[in-house]
Design a protein that fits this description.
The protein is an all-alpha fold and 201 residues long. 63% of the residues lie in helices and 0% in strands. 36% of the residues are buried. The structure holds fe (ii) ion (2 copies).
């Protein structure tokens, strides 16, 4: 995992991983983790021992629900929007159990849990750590992997998906750093989507 996980987070990743084998949550988590590290470099005052463990464990709760419902839990035409809150509650429960079991030093479990709780449903951040975790989570959607997944879940073509990211997700990012990173990824997303459409003409 050289280049992705820092040493002290490897046990947390190992604890999270068995819960992440649905809806590409393992890849989503690692990509968000790396995006989180980039955000932390631009915000050295923010506590990485809160942000990074919260990223690794924030979505462990999805696995509790039947897989066929998961793709329809998010997005503009979500059929099961109640799963948004339900997966946060399950993530809190599982993350607390795993963090207690690991008894990792230098981690304030209550602060990590407070961020996981509401990471999708609470629009405002209650701390700078919360803001960076929320932005790292949402920034994944702008990556090539995120766009591919959203196109499948929402059943929308890439052009529509990137336009949705620009108009609905970009304004929800909480830090200027994340907005700049998202704009850079949108340059790629729009160009690729446009090329795909042109090839189909
Ligand atoms: Fe989530
Ligand atoms: Fe997530």
């Amino acid at each position: 995992m050289n280049g992705i996980l820092i040493e002290s987070d490897i046990p947390i990743w190992r604890a999270a991983k068995p819960w992440l084998d649905v809806r590409s949550n393992d890849e989503h988590t690692l990509i968000s983790y790396r995006l989180g590290r980039a955000l932390l470099r631009a915000h050295p005052e923010v506590d990485d021992r809160i942000v990074l463990p919260a990223i690794l464990l924030h979505d462990v709760g999805w696995r509790v629900f039947p897989e066929e419902l998961l793709a329809k839990a998010v997005g503009p035409a979500a059929k099961y929007p109640e799963l948004q809150r339900a997966h946060e509650i399950e993530s809190v429960r599982i993350a607390r159990t795993e963090l207690n079991r690991l008894a990792a030093p230098n981690i304030d479990i209550d602060r990590v849990i407070a961020i996981i709780d509401g990471h999708d449903t609470r629009p405002q951040a209650h701390s700078p750590e919360d803001a960076l975790m929320k932005d790292a989570d949402k920034l994944w959607r702008f990556t090539a992997h995120g766009i591919d997944k959203l196109c499948i879940w929402f059943e929308t073509p890439a052009k529509e998906t990137v336009a949705m990211l620009e108009s609905y997700v970009l304004p929800k990012l909480l830090t200027e750093t994340a907005k700049t990173m998202a704009q850079a990824m949108l340059a790629d997303g729009f160009a690729i989507a446009w090329m795909q459409e042109t090839l189909n003409l």
